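Hi P.,

Sorry for the delay on this. The queue was packed all week, but I finally got your sequence through. Input first:
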Amino acid sequence: MGIEDVTKPSFTLLSEQGTVVVKDAVGEEVKVFDISGRLLQQGRIESNTWRYTVHESGIYLVQIADRAAQKVVAF
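Then the structure:
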């Protein structure tokens, strides 16, 4: 008995100078939510580096395809 399958996300999620950045997720659907759950941006990632400029500093939730949303702090 043990861990049989460990998967890590195939993409990178980070924050850079007031933007949410997703790398290595070409072709995937992306959604960005504020901390209240309000949808701010939705679309398909068409390049290796996708960016969303935030309007104010804070915590954002980013969902790639059908994976669980992940938190990112942008400022």
